[in-house]
Design a protein that fits this description.
10 helices; disordered N terminus; 14 strands; alpha/beta; three-stranded antiparallel beta sheet; 2 domains; Alpha-Beta Plaits
């Protein structure tokens, strides 16, 4: 057992050490769905869930275990078993220096392992899913996990889009009331379907994106012809380069801005890929001699 006195100096607010709370429940029982609510109960803005560190509605560190290609890798990542993970997480916590944090896990053993791997103070209190959810709510959560492979991450979808490019993401907004005569609190979450549990491995050919580019252009009279399309893929998503010939007389900048916005929306809708950028170059003009 390590000596806590040797590791706590990074995690202090004045003379107070970091307070650590745990939220425990079996997989698929609705922990992530209720994480923000439990965090508010414990007056903390910080959550550790599936290898990511969250502050409020923002991911400040980590690469979600739900992106892992296998369940074994997902478990190891969720436990912060990799050296690079630990260094990144500790650096983020040192910079944030929170007063308290909530750790989610499927068992007491899991949250204890996370505490040990990140060298955090001992857990002050553990909240169990049964403490905040009814048997009916837990059963409904299990049914959603089993039937649809749906997972919840307690941050808004826009925070995750670049990290889950190619995954199916759905926004989930929930209003909570703390009591009569109080304002409702909007809690934003995201539903995702990890590839290892729902879709398996898949790829999207460049030809798919090129076809979408061509199809969308047909509804824009400002574009006479698509001359060239190039697609670059990265871990963040795709960048699309397009050379176009525009019709003479068109005000080019706003016309291409409208086309870009429509194209981005269609690629997102049809492929679930994050669009890093769409770069359009007007390479020439088409003059209709009949006009």
């Amino acid at each position: 057992m390590y000596n806590y006195n040797d590791i706590l100096y990074f995690f202090k607010k004045g003379d107070k050490a970091l307070r650590v709370f745990a939220f425990v429940g079996p997989s698929g029982t609705g922990k992530s769905h209720r994480a923000q609510m439990v965090a508010k109960m414990k007056n903390t803005d910080y959550i550790i869930d599936d290898a990511i560190i969250i502050k409020g509605n923002k991911v400040i560190c980590g690469d979600s275990a739900k992106k892992a290609s296998t369940k074994i890798e997902a478990v190891k990542r969720a436990l912060f078993s990799f050296d690079g993970q630990v260094e990144e997480a500790r650096k983020a916590l040192e910079e944030e220096n929170p007063e308290s944090i909530l750790i989610l896990g499927t068992s007491d053993d899991m949250v204890q392992k996370i505490v040990r791997n990140l060298k955090l103070p001992e857990i002050e209190e553990t909240i169990y899913i049964e403490d905040v959810s009814s048997p009916e709510e837990i059963a409904a959560a299990r049914s959603a996990r089993m039937s649809g492979g749906k997972h919840v991450i307690p941050v808004p979808t826009f925070e995750l889009k670049k990290d889950f490019s190619g995954y199916l993401l759905d926004p989930l907004q929930i209003f909570k009331w703390k009591g009569r005569n109080t304002e409702p609190v909007l809690m934003e979450k995201s539903l995702i379907r990890p590839t290892f549990s729902y879709l398996g491995k898949y790829t999207i050919s460049d030809n798919v994106f090129k076809s979408i580019v061509q199809y969308v252009s047909k509804s824009f009279s400002a574009i006479y012809k698509i001359q060239r399309i190039n697609v670059e893929k990265s871990n963040l998503g795709i960048t699309v380069y397009i050379d176009v010939i525009v019709e003479y007389g068109v005000i080019v900048r706003p016309a291409l801005a409208d086309y870009k916005a429509k194209l981005r929306k269609e690629i997102d809708r049809l492929t679930a890929m994050n669009v890093v950028d769409i770069i359009i170059s007007a390479k020439g003009l088409h003059v209709n001699k009949n006009k």
